[in-house]
Amino acid sequence: MSLHTAALSREPAALAHAGIVAFPPGTATMAERDVLDTTLAMRHAGIRRLRIGWELQGAQDAPVIVVQGGISAHRHVAAGARFAEPGWWDAQCGEGRAIDTRHHRVLAIDWIGADGSLDACIDPADQADAIAAVLDHLGIVRVTAFIGASYGAMVGLQFAARHGARLGRLIAISGAHRSHPQVTALRVIQRRIVALGRSEGGVREALALARSLAVIGYRSDVEFEQRFAAAPAVGPDATRFVVEDYFDAIGPKFVARFSPTAYLRLSESIDLQNLDPASIRVATDIVAVREDRIVPESDLYALAEGIRGSTRLHRISSLYGHDAFLKEEAQIAAILTAALCRSVAA
Amino acid sequence: MSLHTAALSREPAALAHAGIVAFPPGTATMAERDVLDTTLAMRHAGIRRLRIGWELQGAQDAPVIVVQGGISAHRHVAAGARFAEPGWWDAQCGEGRAIDTRHHRVLAIDWIGADGSLDACIDPADQADAIAAVLDHLGIVRVTAFIGASYGAMVGLQFAARHGARLGRLIAISGAHRSHPQVTALRVIQRRIVALGRSEGGVREALALARSLAVIGYRSDVEFEQRFAAAPAVGPDATRFVVEDYFDAIGPKFVARFSPTAYLRLSESIDLQNLDPASIRVATDIVAVREDRIVPESDLYALAEGIRGSTRLHRISSLYGHDAFLKEEAQIAAILTAALCRSVAA
């Protein structure tokens, strides 16, 4: 909290002092989105022609922060003047937020594979290279920070390992250098459900089911206790459990915006993560959520110990488990603000 | 361990002293199995004609112990002279085992619903009443102990609550008075997978998939780490993870011996468990496995606190999580032997 307060008090003068051009409120902002058609040498899938959607927004010419979320996140991180629709992380990104678009430009891509057009093995390293390709295209040599959560943290670790020279600081929330084998097993089941539905014609229902299964792991047992412990409706021939209303709400929503191929390939991509932490020499903040059932704390300890750059491990506790980065607004904001402050001071 | 040793040293003289007829090795044994056609007033499904398969084996006229396992267990607990095929719990039951057939008769039933002929909501209380019906049929007024594991422990708790006057002691391993809502959510998904396969014609594959998902929860994360952490085989278009060999081995085995209806109804039955622990006034041993992801320890603490009879809570640790009752032979044998010894002394 002391660092958080310090950060609030150092703008804009302190930022300017640290060598960063700071903009008072009202400074000209920019927002652009486009697609980059390029060729990428993928780790498993060989050389491929790809189309990478990107969005860049914030203060004109300000330092760049890359922000990437989970497999269902996208290039529109936050609402702005030009692209006013809600982003997936408005709580943390925007004017006056922890990732302050008055002082930074925020860059994000749509995950390669997210449009369902690439049916091939996608390594998280490929996503890092795709981001690097967009940076090259935009003439951005160096980024102040890479803030990644969930799959975005995995990609951030890959970016730090592969493109460390152009990165100031990595902030990796709830994502590690590998997937835990038990969680991989659960995701294998999710993909097999979709494959079952695909071969049998019930692919929308199957995808909704796979998503429901995934979501069980995203939240803590305490939340399930609080929300779904009521007795089921039992008839002679059928029982309906309280949690089924929840599944029937989230499944179709997900199906409406995710193709089966995109889901299969991005889910698989999470399980392809396999990085030696020692290959990272960038200053790194790691955020571990105690209740996260998808990314065990023990894996994040191993990551923190293995990284060769200076490392800070932040442990937080949340009812929301793996979804804490979306829900624990104050805890996450404090960590981001402090880390970005260190990043500026470095 | 002291109780364990005591139990070994008190046979047969001490058992006779405690008012139990003890049989030296070589005493006449019996083994019978049959089906009982009866009518049961079921909790949700109304009055139904049922066929209940049972097996009774052990020393002639010896005290009776009811032994019931998980939803895939059955009436043949252990191999004997007459029914020599392996049982599902030979490690704990048989001549010279913790549940010693030289000094007891062991009774078990095939779960109602296990043959797939009953497509209705089955409460664990119905299973307890089915066991009581078999006891009535056999003229057995009282049983020395009910040893239940997993679903069998849930049914044992129901038996203790509903037929406590005819029960000496309950030993409940890895089963509680309710299902945890998060685990119910996982089982809802398992049942929906089967339902999806059923409507789409891929029911065998779907059942195998549901079973694979169930099994992930039965074992600990440490076991997955040890067995399945090796890197996957990655091609340009497909990846095969190590755990998939395991899934492809266990799924078809399960499908060969379980009908979709039986699976759906017995899985649902686990989630219908809803018992007030205060309704139990029988002496009870509860066995909790720290690594059990299906039955959280906190639920077993609540159970132990709520029971009105004298209660012992045994905590063990096992790599095998919920499956510890099948795998931790020495730890489980020590607990059973000591509990049965107390049961005899009572």
Features:
Rossmann fold; 8-stranded mixed β-sheet; 346 residues; Rna Polymerase Sigma Factor, Chain: A; two-stranded parallel ribbon; 12 helices; homodimer; alpha/beta; globular
Q: Helices and strands in order, then pairings?
A:
Two copies of one chain form a homodimer.
Chain A: H1 2-9, H2 13-17, E1 29-42, E2 46-59, E3 64-68, E4 93-94, E5 99-100, E6 105-109, H3 124-138, E7 143-149, H4 151-162, E8 167-173, H5 181-200, H6 203-218, H7 221-228, E9 233-234, E10 239-240, H8 243-257, H9 260-272, E11 283-289, H10 297-306, E12 311-316, H11 324-327, H12 329-345
Parallel strand pairs in A: 3-6, 3-7, 4-5, 7-8, 8-11, 11-12
Antiparallel strand pairs in A: 1-2, 2-6, 9-10
Helix pairs in contact in A: 1-12, 3-4, 5-6, 5-9, 6-8
Structural features, described:
Chains A, B: The active site is at 150 (nucleophile), 292, 322. Chains A, B: This is Homoserine O-succinyltransferase. Chains A, B: It holds the Pfam family Abhydrolase_1. Chains A, B: Residues 86-327 form the AB hydrolase-1 domain. The first copy, chain A, has 346 residues and is of the alpha/beta class. Chain A has 12 helices and 12 strands. Chain A has an 8-stranded mixed sheet, sandwiched between helices.
